[in-house]
Design brief:
Immunoglobulin-like; transmembrane helix; three-stranded mixed β-sheet; disulfide bond; alpha/beta; four-stranded mixed β-sheet; 7 strands; signal; Cupredoxin
Length: about 140
């Protein structure tokens, strides 16, 4: 009986393992961080963003903010309510769903001049290896 429980636990771990091994942390802007006068489109161009990955926005506290917005708000720099701003200077966003994601700074005209905006495409984890079949059969 105990061996069946061990197999069940191992099967669950194998099923979860691919998702956890794909989780990657991206420091937005790398050593430049979240700042003005940086090309975030170029920064993101060679990266693969997957569900489960994390975006880390490093910036001096009180100098910048991060808003997660929709495509229209991104294009037109429509700022959400201030209460939705991430402002701790080390903000982390976990990418929970696939699709297009948009972020910009809500301080001053940082997004309006186009220098502090990030648009990415997040892929599902469906390319991960399939979990091992259950030792108990279907």
């Amino acid at each position: 009986m105990a061996s069946k429980q061990v197999y069940a636990i191992l099967a669950m771990m194998v099923a979860v393992l691919p998702a956890t091994t794909l989780a990657k942390v991206f420091v937005v802007g790398d050593e430049h961080g979240w700042t003005i006068n940086f090309d975030y489109k170029l920064w993101a161009a060679d990266k693969d963003f997957w569900v489960g990955a994390k975006l880390v926005f490093h910036d001096p506290v009180g100098v910048h903010s991060v808003f997660k917005v929709n495509g229209t708000a991104f294009q037109e720099c429509i700022k959400p309510p201030p209460s939705e701003a991430l402002i701790c200077g080390n903000d982390i966003i976990t990418l929970l769903t696939r699709g297009l994601k948009w972020y910009f700074c809500g301080v001053g005209k940082h997004s309006e001049v186009g220098s502090q905006k990030l648009a990415i495409s997040v892929q599902s984890i469906s390319r991960a290896p399939a979990p091992a079949p259950s030792p108990f059969g279907a």
